[in-house]
Amino acid sequence: MRTPRPAPLCRSWLFLEGANEDVLQRAPTSGADVLIHELEDFTPPALRPKARKLAADLYAAWREQGAVVAVRVNPLEQDGMDDLAAVMCGRPDIVALPKVAEPHHVVQLDEAVTRFERDYGIAEGSTALLPNIEFARGLVQTGAIAAASRRTIGCLMASEDLAADLGAERGTDGIELAYARQRFLVECRAANVVAVDCPYTWSDAAGVARDAIWGRRLGYGAKSLVDPAHAAIINGVLTPSEEELRQANRIVAAFEAARAQGLGRVEFDGSLLEVPTYSNAKRLIARGEALRAIDRSAQA
Predict the structure, then answer these.
(1) pLDDT given for residue 273 in this prediction
(2) Is the pTM of this model over 0.70?
(3) Where on this chain does Mg(2+) bind (predicted)?
C-alpha cells in the first residue's frame, strides 16, 4: 500500500458521483491526487443509501491505488449525520462539508467525526476536514472557518453555488469570480491551510488549462474538478516543469553569488532579484523535488 501524499502536495481534487459504481471504480485511472466520494449534489437523495454502502470497499480500493480518500457528506442538519454514520467505517482521510457559512458548522462536524472515530476504533484526530465555501457569508469568514478546528487541512471554494449566491453571470473566462478566488486564497494563506481552487465546470481542455494557469499565477497549488479528464491537465499545470526548475535554479545561483560578493540584489535577465524572488525560487524547487519523489515512489 502506498503512502498518500500530504495535503499541500495534492494538486487535483476530483468530485465523483456517489452512487455511480462504474465511475467510482475507474476514478484512480484519472490520476487525480484526491478522490472525493460526493454524496451531496452529485447523489440524488434516493441513491444515497446505495452510495453509503459502497464506502468501505471503495475507499480501501482507492487507498490501495495511492489516492487520498475523501468524502463530501451533506450538511449535518440534512442527511450529513446519516452519511457519516455509514461512511466512517471506510476510514476516509478527509471529510468535506458543503455550504459552510459559519465557523460553528466546522465545530459541529469536528464533534461528529470525533464520535464516529471512537465508534469505529479510528485514531482520534486522524480524519482531516475540508470546509467548502459556497456563499458570500462563508467567503468573508474563511479565516475564522479555517481556524475553527485543528483537523482542518484546507478549504475548498465552490464555483456554481457561490456565483448563484452573488447573482453573477457565469462565463468560461471566470471573471465574475476573480475577486472571490483572490480573496479566498489570501484568507487560506493567512490561516495556513491549503486553498483548493474552484472547479472549471466546462468540458474543454484548453479552458481548464487556462483557468488552472491563472490560478497558479495567483498562488494556488491545488484545484478541484468535476471531469476526470481534467486531472492530468491540472496536475501538469500545477507541477513545476523542467524548464521552470532550471530557471529557478539559475535564480538561486545568481542571487547566492551576488550575496557572496556582499550585494543585496542582482540584475538577472532584465529583472532585479531580491530576497522574495529568491525565496519563491527555492520554494518552487522544493515543491518540484517533493512531487517528483512521490511520483517515483508510486512507480516503484
Answers:
(1) 87
(2) yes
(3) 134, 161
